[in-house]
Specification:
The chain has a 3-stranded antiparallel β-sheet, with no helix packed on it. The chain has no helices and 6 strands. 0% of the residues lie in helices and 40% in strands.
Length: 144
């Protein structure tokens, strides 16, 4: 299976690239190859830093229930922040990635908080260990 697309790379921070809807029937993937098929087009971000922080991460991995991660996101800026992207990676006890999920909060008013929820349609095939949650603010698309 091959996919092509584009992404936003936030300046000066760790980010994730998520590709959903990959179904392999009973096959188990052993690797993923990520490559630039042509030279990237870089656009410089001129905006200032956005002060959005993760306050609390609640993991729910009860046996028999579907996995779910809830994160409280706080906007500590003095203005509305739009397009807050969240990316969660769940690792097993050995540190191997089991699953990932991506979500977006449309906006959070100044000084307010909102919940970011990550969920999966079935239990993980192994015992979940560490969870890593990344977040960044994508620029609002310019409408022509």
């Amino acid at each position: 299976d091959s996919r092509e697309g584009s992404t936003y790379i936030p300046p000066g921070q760790t980010f994730g690239i998520f590709e959903g809807g990959v179904f392999l029937d009973k096959a188990v993937p052993t690797r993923v190859i990520f490559e630039w098929i042509k030279s990237p087009i870089w656009n410089k971000y001129e905006g200032g830093p956005k002060t959005v922080f993760l306050k609390e991460i609640v993991k729910k991995f009860e046996v028999g229930n579907l996995p779910r991660i809830e994160v409280e996101v706080q906007n500590n800026s003095l203005s509305l922040v739009r397009n807050i992207v969240g990316f969660a990676v769940v690792y097993d006890q050995k540190g191997t990635a089991l699953a990932s999920s991506r979500t977006v909060i449309d906006s959070i008013p100044a000084g307010r908080a909102d919940s970011m929820v990550f969920s999966w349609p079935e239990p993980f095939g192994a015992t979940a260990g560490r969870v890593e949650v990344l977040h960044w603010v994508e620029p609002t698309p310019v409408k022509n």
